Amino acid sequence: MNNNIFRDMRAQMKPSAEALSRLEAALEAEPVADKVPGAVSAAAAETAAGPPPASNPAVAPSPASGSGAARTTGSSRGPNRRSRRLAIYLSAAAAFALVLIAGGSVLLSGLPFGGPKPLDGLDFSDSPSLVAQAGAVRAPADYEELYGILEEAYTARGGFYGNGVMEIASAEDAVASGAAVSDAAAGQSTAPSEDVDVPTVTPTATEEADTAAAPEAVAPGTSVAADSDYSETNTQVKGIDEADIVKTDGTHIYALTQNELAIFKADGPNTVEVSRTQLASQTDYSTGSSPREMYLVDDMLTVVIDYYHYGTVDEPYLEDASSSSSSSEGAAEGDAATSQIAPAVSEETLETRLAFYDVSDPTAPTLITQFAQSGNYRNSRVYDGTLYLISSYYLYAGMDSEDPGSFVPLIGEGEARACIAVEDIRIMPEVQQPHYTIITSYDIVGQERLDQKTVLGEAGTVYMSYDNLYLASSIYTDEVSNLYEDSVYTIEEHTTKNSTQIIRVGVAAGALDVAAQCVIDGMLLNQFSLDEYEGNLRIALTLNNSGYRILRDISHNVESYQYDFENPPQTNALYVLSPSLTVLGAIEGLAEDERIYSVRFTGSVGYMVTYRQMDPLFALDLSDPANPQVLSELKIPGFSAYLHPFGEGRLLGLGYDADGARTDGMKLSMFDVSDPFAVSELYAESAEAYDSEALYNHKAVLADAERNIIGFYGYGDSGGGRYYVYRYDDAGGFELRGALTLSTEYGYEIRGLFIGEYLYVLSGDALDVFALEDLGTVASVPISHPDEDGGFGKVMPMAVPEQP
Amino acid sequence: MDAVATRVCLSTTEAIARYRDMVYGIALTHTGNRSDAEDVFQEVFLVYHRKQPSLEGDERCKAWLITTTLNCARQLTASSWRRKVVPLYESTVDGRDEERDGDRFAFRTEEQDAVFAALQQLPRKYRSVLHLFYFEDMSVAQIALALGIEAGTVKVQLSRGRAQMRERLKGEYFDE
C-alpha cells in the first residue's frame, strides 16, 4: 500500500463538530466522577489559569493545518507528499482546539488584553531566525537535587509525553521505535528479580581527552567491506555500523526472524539453515521480550532486545461492558485475547537488553551474558569494537523521594540492577524534561560495559561521527502572542514554533562525555540531516514558524479559528555549529515554502533536496564553516527521499516521480556532482514499484558502485512485492536487471545482500538465493515459524460475518 | 509512597483532546459508518469519564482507549447484525439508499474509498493491526504492547492483512 494514501485518509477521519458537542453535552450531564473530582471542570480551570497550550509542547499542534492546509494539499488528489507531518499536526491541532473549547467562557480571565489589531496578517517579524543557544551541561549534586528537578519538570509540564514531532517526521524512527508512543510506556522500573534501593553502580567514567584518533574522513555510503566481497548494512558513516535485522560475515547470514535468530550457511545453491535460537519469549500477557536489531563483530553477535513486564492488570473493561450491555454474544466471539488486556497496570518494567552470543560455532550460538538498562530501545552504533546503546526512559509511575530506584534509571548485568550513579547523570541547561536518555558503551569482544551516562532529555534522532554521538529532539511551542477584542469577538493570537535540541556526547574509545547542548530553530528530517566534518556539526533544518487566531464570541457561545496560511510558511536552513554547539555559519532562507526531503553530506559538500512541486537539489559548499554557500541548485520533477553517493562524482537518488496524478511511482535519479557548481541529473528512471521501505529506511537499500548493484524491495503495480535489482552506467543509465519474485508475496523488512556471486534476499518467510550473473533463483530456504498463527498457538475464528 | 502527585492518567478533557481522532478513526474502521462510529466515540469517552481508569502513563491511557474502542465497536456491530442492519457501506456505495449513503464516510478520492472498503472487509484482527500501523503510525512493538499480543503475531497479521487488502483491491486501483 502506498503510505501516503493512508496518511491522507487518516487526516480525514475526524469526529464531526456535532459529535463533539454531543459528547460534551453528555459529559456535562454526567455526575462528577468521584475518583477524580471534576475532571472536566478541573481541566477547564487549569486552562483558564493561563495560556495552557503553550505549556503543552509535546502535543505538537500546528493549527495552521487544522482545517485549511491539510485539506488544501489533499484536495489536489494524488499522493499527499506533505501529509506525513500534516496528518500529525492535524490531529494535534484538533486536540488543542478541544482543550480550549472545554475551557469555555472562563478562558479569558487572567490573560492580558492587547490592543485591537487588524484581522489580516499576523505579525511574523520575528520569522525564521537563528536562535542557537549553547549552554552548560552539569551533573546534579545528588539524587535529592535530581528529584527536585524532576518534580519541577513534572509540575511545569503541560503534557510532556514525549517529543513526538521528530519521531514522526522521521519515518524510520516512527516505525522502528517511535518515542512518542512506545517509549512513553516506560514506567517505574524495578529489578526483575530483586529490589535495588541503594545505588551501587561504580562509575567508570573518566575525563577523556577529546582526541580520539579519527580516521581519515571517508566518503560515506560504500557498503562493501574493505577486504572482502560481501555487502554490509547500509550505514550513514563508513566504518560506523548500524544495527539491523540481518548481518553477514561473508560465510554465514544471521537473521532475526520473529523471536528467533536464524543462522544460514551462505553457499549459493547449497545455502542451508544451520541453527535456530530462541532469543525472546512471552511467558504471559504481561511479560515478554522481543529482539529488535543486532550487530556482528568477529564471532560475537550482540542482540538488542526489548523487555517488558507489567505488574498487575486492571479489570478489563469488557467485563462490565458486557454485563451492562445486551450484546454480550458479540464480545464472546473473536478478539477475546485482545479484550482481556485492559492495559491498566500499577507497576511495570521496560528495559532495553543487550545479549551477547558467541557464534564461533554457528550451529550452536551460546549466550555469554546479558546487560540491561531502563527504558525503550532508541538507537545504537558500533565503532571500532565498541557498542553504544541508547534508550529512552519515561517516569510515569510516580516518584518516591526516599527511593532513588523510583526516579533514577537502572542499569545492570544478568539479573542485577542498580541505579545510575548521580555523577553519571547530566542536566540540560534549558530544557527540563521528566524523562531520561540513557547511553551506555560496551566492549564487544570483552563483553563488558565501559561507561554510562544519562541525560535528562530526549533522543529522537541519533547521529554518530567518529568522535561524537549527537542526540537531537524536537521541541514544539505554542504561545499566545496577542489578545484583544474586536467588535463582539475576543481574539486570541497564537504563534507556534518547532525547535530542535541537540546534545553532543563525546565518545573516545567508549568513554562518554556529555559535552555540549543547544536549542536551535527548526526541525530535522532524520539522521542524515546531521553530519560532522572537521570537528564541526552541519545541520539542515526546516523552519516553519506559524500562527493562527481564535475568534470567540462569548455572548453567542461560538468560536472559530482563522489560519492565515494555507500552508505554514516554511523555509530551510543549514547551520554549521562549533564543538560547543555555537553557530559558526549559516545559510538561511533556502527554498521558501518547501521542506527538506533528503540530505546527504560528503566531505565539504552537502546536498539537500527540498520539495513542493519540483525537486530542487542544492549543492552546498561547507568548506569554510563560517561561510557556507549554495553552489548550485537543480530543479527536476519529483523528489529524492534518499541520497547515496554512488561512485566518483555520482549521487544516487531514490524517491518519487511527481508526474501523474495518482499512481506516480518510485523514481531513481543519478546526479552528476563531479562539478558541484553545475549539478545535473544524468538519468532518471521511473520504477515499477510505487512504494518501498528504502524510501524511509536506508538500511533497506543495497547499493554498491563497485559491484554496480542497486537493490531494494518494493511494491509494484502488478501485484505483490518484488526485489528490484538495477545497474547503472553513464552510457546507458539505469537498467532494471530483474524484478525478483520472492517466496514471500507481501513482505516487509526485506533485506538484500550479496556474498561473492550470489544475491541473498531475506524475508520473513524465506531466504531466497539468486545468482548475481543472471539473477536466476538458485535456492530458497524456507523459514518456518512454529507459532505463526497466534500469540499462544491458538487461532481464533475472526471472520466478519457474511452480509445477508 | 509519599510522592509527587504523579497521577499521570489524563483528565477526560485531556484524553479527548489528545485521542479523539484516534478513537474516532478506530471506531470508523471497525463500524464502517458515521453514526455508529460517533456512538462508539461517545461511549468510549463516557466510559473513560465514568471509570477514570487508574492508568499510569499516557501510553497506558492510549492502550486502554484502543482496546475499549475495539470492544465497543465490536459490541455495536454485533448488535447491528442481530438487528439485520447493514452497517458496511459497500452495499450503499451506489447511492441507492440515500439515508445510508449520507451515513457512510466518504473520503476525498475514489481510491481512498476503495481502500477503506477493502479494509472494512478484512477480518477484524487484521483490521485492528492494519489500522494502528497505517493510521496511527504505531510500530509493531507498540501495537503488540497495546493489544497485548506478541510482536511476531502482529507482524504475521500485518503481512496477511496487507496481502488480503491487495487481493481485494486487485483490478481496481492497483492493477491498472
Question: What are the salient characteristics of this protein?
Answer:
heterodimer; A: about 800 residues; mainly beta; seven-stranded antiparallel β-sheet; B: about 180 residues; mainly alpha; Arc Repressor Mutant, subunit A; 2 domains; 8 helices; disordered N terminus
Describe the structure.
The complex is a heterodimer of chains A (804) and B (176). Chain A has 804 residues and is mainly beta. Chain A has 11 helices and 45 strands. Chain A is 13% helix and 40% strand. In chain A, strands 1, 19, 20, 21, 22, 25 and 26 form a 7-stranded antiparallel beta sheet that branches. The two termini of chain A are 30 Å apart. Chain B is an all-alpha fold and 176 residues long. Chain B has 2 domains: 1-106, RNA polymerase sigma factor, region 2, helix turn helix motif (Rna Polymerase Sigma Factor, Chain: A, Orthogonal Bundle); 108-176, Arc Repressor Mutant, subunit A (Orthogonal Bundle), CATH 1.10.10.10. Helix content of chain B is 68%, strand content 0%. Chain B has 8 helices and no strands. In chain B, 65% of the residues are buried.
Chain-wise SSE layout:
The complex is a heterodimer of chains A (804) and B (176).
Chain A: H1 3-12, H2 17-29, H3 39-49, H4 69-75, H5 83-103, E1 133-135, H6 143-156, H7 164-169, H8 171-176, E2 240-241, E3 246-248, E4 252-257, E5 260-265, E6 272-278, E7 282-284, E8 287-297, E9 300-310, H9 317-324, H10 328-332, H11 336-339, E10 348-358, E11 366-374, E12 376-383, E13 386-394, E14 410-413, E15 418-419, E16 425-426, E17 435-443, E18 448-456, E19 461-464, E20 468-486, E21 489-508, E22 511-521, E23 530-533, E24 536-543, E25 546-553, E26 558-563, E27 571-577, E28 583-590, E29 595-602, E30 605-611, E31 614-621, E32 629-637, E33 639-645, E34 650-656, E35 666-672, E36 680-686, E37 689-692, E38 702-704, E39 709-716, E40 721-729, E41 733-741, E42 751-755, E43 758-762, E44 766-771, E45 777-782
Parallel strand pairs in A: 16-18
Antiparallel strand pairs in A: 1-22, 2-12, 3-4, 4-5, 5-6, 7-8, 8-9, 9-10, 10-11, 11-14, 12-13, 13-17, 14-15, 17-18, 19-20, 20-21, 21-22, 21-25, 23-24, 24-27, 25-26, 27-28, 29-30, 30-31, 31-32, 33-34, 34-35, 35-36, 37-39, 38-39, 39-40, 40-41, 42-43, 43-44, 44-45
Chain B: H1 12-31, H2 34-51, H3 58-82, H4 98-103, H5 110-120, H6 124-135, H7 140-147, H8 151-169
